Amino acid sequence: MHRFEIRVRYGDTDQMGWVYYGNYLRWFEIGRAEMLRSMGRSYREVEEDLGVLMPVLEARCRYFHGARYDERVTLETGLLDHARATMRFGYRVRGEDGTVCAVGLTEHCFTSRDAKLVRPPAMLRDLLGVAPPVDDELRGLLGA
Amino acid sequence: MHRFEIRVRYGDTDQMGWVYYGNYLRWFEIGRAEMLRSMGRSYREVEEDLGVLMPVLEARCRYFHGARYDERVTLETGLLDHARATMRFGYRVRGEDGTVCAVGLTEHCFTSRDAKLVRPPAMLRDLLGVAPPVDDELRGLLGA
Amino acid sequence: MHRFEIRVRYGDTDQMGWVYYGNYLRWFEIGRAEMLRSMGRSYREVEEDLGVLMPVLEARCRYFHGARYDERVTLETGLLDHARATMRFGYRVRGEDGTVCAVGLTEHCFTSRDAKLVRPPAMLRDLLGVAPPVDDELRGLLGA
Amino acid sequence: MHRFEIRVRYGDTDQMGWVYYGNYLRWFEIGRAEMLRSMGRSYREVEEDLGVLMPVLEARCRYFHGARYDERVTLETGLLDHARATMRFGYRVRGEDGTVCAVGLTEHCFTSRDAKLVRPPAMLRDLLGVAPPVDDELRGLLGA
Hints:
Four copies of one chain form a homotetramer. Chain A has about 140 residues and is of the alpha+beta class. Chain A has a single domain (about 1-140), classed as Thiol Ester Dehydrase, Chain A, CATH 3.10.129. Chain A has four helices and five strands. In chain A, strands 1-3-4-5-2 form a five-stranded antiparallel sheet, with helices on both faces. In chain A, a hairpin with a 5-residue loop joins strand 4 (about 85-95) and strand 5 (about 100-110). The longest helix of chain A is centred in the first third of the chain and has 16 residues, at about 25-40. Chain A is globular. Chains in contact: A-B, A-C, A-D, B-C, B-D, C-D. Strand 2 (about 55-65) of chain A pairs antiparallel with strand 2 of chain B, so a sheet runs across the interface.
């Protein structure tokens, strides 16, 4: 799986003292963008050059352990699976000491700028063929 | 189900022109807080008076239709189910014209301030007994 | 000045236990949008019907007292002043007990969709003539 | 001045297609945290080990040029000035091509955990003596 490190910021926390639960979906966005970049492409290119958007159809997150302010967390991202018109990414967030903070998935479709469903462009299909898959442990946790 | 209206703000949108997908989890938070309030209690009381936190174990959201800037959306919230140590809320977000924008669920446990699992206090158990349930349509969509 | 009430949400707080300082700028956005709406217009109309954007040139906020989770705060918004090509709004945020939590201002210009400076459309100029002004106390605090 | 690079994320943008104006205050937070870290300390240490909080008394931001999705922006941070009980940081945000996107400042005081004003601890006073100052161009822009 692709790995990318980020730092927890003050504004990410809430008064419980851990990262607010909604912010993990932002981390998933960072994870999939950086995985794409590591494969030589960027989601900005997909949008700007190909005119294809990848809106989220579904998002899930299971929370195991709160991430703390200033902690350096690792976003692990991989391809979970893909069908003709959709694809799913899997994510695992690890704390500084390796503890699993959360796991999750997002499902995406492909649309034109005016929100019509389209087939994924060849460039994306090619990428899906070589994208790092999620590992078995994560696949098991996601029950998917 | 409990209903609560909110307005989409500029800062909620992203450059696709709809509400950013992570912000729906914030809306779910608003939905469950206002459902609790409609039953005569507040989550602030639960935290401050009872010393009990209700961290999120799992969150899911399925996105059907993007919400737009300045749109008045309705958060529909209900109890999905509960067990001895956990409970789940279900949510449906409707746009101004009634279109379903998204549905989702959150699962919560009960902990003390120092993050130890506790049994839900009697006040919360009593509330769970009279909380508005999710309707059948939502239950079906959530597959839960 | 125009008044609008909002509720502090969990996701607005940070681990200090008060509202994160950056979120006040979101509240200012809500304040000016609702002031405009109270005058019979909406910022969405300005963007969609007139094709005019009002990007922020400057924002300032002075923080006096932290707002707390679940507190009902009042956004007070008024016109601070305007010139041919710019205008400024002033804001005061009051806590549930009337305490002033923060004051601030934003300065805006008018642009077309492709980011070119334009003169404010007649509809906006007319509104500026009848908009509720900031009160003297706030004008003093803003030193403006 | 201290330099730190970050990437603009999708969730940072709004429907205008640039970064939402309130998010620059989050960037300022990142800038001052990383400047402190570059000097061998972390703000987490200040809070946890010294029990001192540094709440924001004032924040200002002037916006010159919008930052775009996926752009790599540089946060430049320096000490603006300090007095016995307060200190101010100055910030400049540069886009990928060096364009100045925004400049700003924050003023902070020092408090104990129960929100009482305190004198800055010796460790912080020592750091202030060796912190990188803002450059003259920024000082001029900030008019401070």
